[in-house]
Amino acid sequence: MRIPLISPSTTSPFEGLLEHAEKVRECAWVFQQAVECYASEQCEEFINFKDEVVKLESEADAIKRRIRGHLPKGTKMPVSRFELFLYIREQDKVLDSVEESLNWLSYRVKPGIPENLKKDVFLLVDSVIEPIEMLSKLVFEAKKYFESYSEKQRKIVKEIIHQVRRQEHEADELEDELKIKIFSLEKDPVTIFHMVRLCEMIGSIADHAENAGDMMRAMVAKKKGAFFGD
Amino acid sequence: MELYLFCLIILGSLAIFDLMVGVSNDAVNFLNSSIGSKVAPRHIIMIVASLGILAGVTFSSGMMEVARKGIFYPRYFVMPELITIFLAVMLADVILLDLFNTFGMPTSTTVSIVFELLGAAVAVSIFKLLGQGESLSGLIKYINTAKALAIIMGILLSVVVAFLSGVIAQFFTRLVFTFDYMPRLKRYGALWGGLALSIITYFILIKGSKGASFLTPETIAWIKTHSMMILSFNFLVFGIIFHFLSLFTRINILKPIVLVGTFSLAMAFAANDLVNFIGVPLAGLNAYQLASSLGDPLRATMEALEKPVKANTMLLLMAGSIMVATLWLSRKARTVTSTEVNLARQDIGIERFGSSFFGRVIVGAAWAAVGFMRKVVPVGLRRAIAIRLDPSKTTLLPGPDGTKPSFDLVRASVNLVVASAIISLATSMKLPLSTTYVTFMVAMGTSLADQAWGRESAVYRVTGVITVIGGWFFTAVGAFTTSFLFATAIYFFKLPAIIALLGLIAFSLFASYRYHLKKEKEKEQMEALAIIGISDPKASIAMTFEQTGQFLRQISDNVDICFDAAFAEDLERLRDTKAQAEKIEAMASLIINNIFMALSSLQQEDISKTAQYAKTTGVIQSIAACHRDIVFQTCQHFENYHPGFDEEQKDELRHVKAFVTRLLWNTAIMLMRRKRVDFNYISNQYERLKELVDKCDKNQVLRIQRGQSKPKVTLLYFALLGNCLRLSEQTKELLILFRDSLGLKSK
């Protein structure tokens, strides 16, 4: 049995977590804009988008530090600190992967994304953004669950985690299809290497979103005999 | 006897709760005029009211009879029966008054206690008669029907009299002072001040003398027989004082009148209504003490309770202190006060009540009556009146907090003078009335005479007044029924019933506290949206951006939840989204209003920018309508228990939802942070959504051809696709309009 978050004096760690998830989501959108900009070749804003991602990442870092520094103690924690830290780490890794992917793109400004791959790259980006968008919803619903411990709310959280997993799987499939398509291109090896690596990096964004979902699954799991958070 | 001692302790605790819920509801009676007119800083008004309450409680010692013998004859009851009645009454009173406070509805604590006493006494009398094998016609012997009827009739009559008096008094006062009252105040202020304060001080004398221990019966009788003399003398003295004040100082003489009026009404409230909160527990204590002194405490009848008893002054002061503390701290008291102040407000703004059939009928009839009057009254007279009663000349000077008051000091003083006059007249004629009903109806009458209910707001205001009056009838019926049921439970099940009812009270108080907190938060959010009073065009434009962003963000979240709830066929969540959709619609109206204000302030600078206004409001309305359609159609579909989506449909709709919410969110961020807009990104998202919707359309047609989809679910599916596409299109359009009309930067 765990104690619901009803005390008005307690600040739920999920408030900060939600704030962090929203930064991650925003960052994902900027990433999408950056990729579209990169693909259009005439766009000169790419560097600005990259800077925006860096800025958002540092803001998210500040939130992460705040969460770690202001966790309620003992019985006021609805979940284990360890699990919570693991979750934030995974959510944060999404941002790192986004930043890494943009860095990778920036290493080779010309000739950009081959014309016949553009649509597939956009589709892949779409597919990895969907699980990231789900993260903030996941935290929001989990927060509600830890306030009420209602079974219905737990089911809602589990359903979101299920969706994140499915979306990650779809992203994996798209990544594989895209890789096949890249290798079938008669392009120079550098372009092929650049594109394959880019696919893997974009794919890893969804992997971290899925990992975060799995950490949340562990947090909402029914634990027998646990009365106090650690 | 231990059980009854325990009951007494409960009665004592309930008295504290009753004092708190009672003051929260009644505070509006004496605070309405001063808070509505912002006569002084809030803390000054509260200090004056607190002093009035403390003065009033010391006068209330003679008022405790109603609880003991006003409604029933104690000589026919034994102590356990009386304790049962009193417990049922207090439990019902706390629940009922707290319910009214939570919804911000003013009601009469007198009516509530009278009907609770009636309900519980009838219940106990019926069971007593049945137990003794007597017929129910004997009930009349137990109940003081004459007094109960007199109370009810008096109260109903006072409602009509108060409203009409308010209308007439305000009409003539306004005719004298007009809406631009300051220049006329110099001329007629002393006369009005003398009249107002002489009525108010007479009211203090009449109300105070009833329970004041330092006045002999002869003195009280003299006051009553020399009313005219006292009034004339006071009129003369106050008239002279006010004349000198207006000649030699810059004091607005309406201010002391309103403050003294507030003091007097607070005093009358404490003197009169204290009995409603502690009268019953004190009567219980008297019954217990009386029974304990007798040989057979459980069977001896309680005729001794019919003798007058003086309450302990220390006890009264303690009760007064609780009332004062509640007055300062209760958030629910503010909610009740704001209901009345908003209904009487001179300006237009956010209306708390919606439109109702009765409201429309009454306004229609009133409009027809106005038309008839126009034909009957000679043109010259009509013109003369219209010049003096021109509300556009209203000079609502900002209050101490810098914001505009809801009405001016002339109306506030009329409210207090008329209410005081009616209450003191009724008291001197020994007619029972409800202070709440009188002050509320006077306030409504004066606002009607002041044309505060113009065509912009009349239907909503009248609906509000009907709702409040409907609540009064509910008070009587609810009080009677609840205490009847509670008394029945306690009569038969004793301690278990008492414990269960205490549990019910605890739950009810907790639930209402949470509900009220939630509603207050929502109200604050809505009020924060209104940009009335911001004159700086830049600030109002910044606020418009922020609010439109919030609006899109809320739509995005609600669409997201709606789709998820539809996939899970979760009716409860769907209904939540429906409620949220209604709030978002209200928000859309406010934003449109704000954009109008922002653009009208811009007009002076650049007229070309305002040309897009009509388009902008149309687009915001379309966005709200698309959102409403998505939510309402989905909710209706599942409320009719039609089949849900299959996995393939869910999957497609999930992708569509992702695009729409992303587009809405990104637009929201661009507006809220005044980020440079990436129109290419938004256009790309929209184009991809269009492609996706086309694909989904084709897939659905295939499913229909294969017989995989039923008609109702197909209808919903297409409706969702269409609305999502339109929502995105309009959002894109909004962004362009904001760029063109309000200067949003683009990349």
Describe the structure.
The complex is a heterodimer of chains A (230) and B (747). Chain A is mostly helical and 230 residues long. Chain A has one domain: Methane Monooxygenase Hydroxylase, Chain G, domain 1 (Up-down Bundle), CATH 1.20.58. Helices cover 76% and strands 0% of the residues of chain A. Chain A has helices at 13-40, 46-69, 81-106, 118-148, 151-183, 189-220. In chain A, α1 packs parallel to α3 (81-106) and α4 (118-148) packs antiparallel against α5 (151-183). The longest helix of chain A is centred in the C-terminal third of the chain and has 33 residues, at 151-183. Chain A is elongated, with a radius of gyration of 19 Å. With 747 residues, chain B is an all-alpha fold. Chain B folds into two domains: 2-499, no CATH class; 526-742, Phosphate transport system protein phou homolog 2, domain 2 (Methane Monooxygenase Hydroxylase, Chain G, domain 1, Up-down Bundle). The longest helix of chain B has 72 residues, at 458-529. The model of chain B has no long low-confidence stretch (mean pLDDT 85). Chain A binds chain B through residues 25-26, 29, 32-33, 36-37, 40, 43, 45, 122, 126, 129-130, 133, 137, 156, 159, 163, and chain B through 560, 564, 568, 654-655, 658, 661-662, 665-666, 669, 678, 680-681, 684, 688, 747.
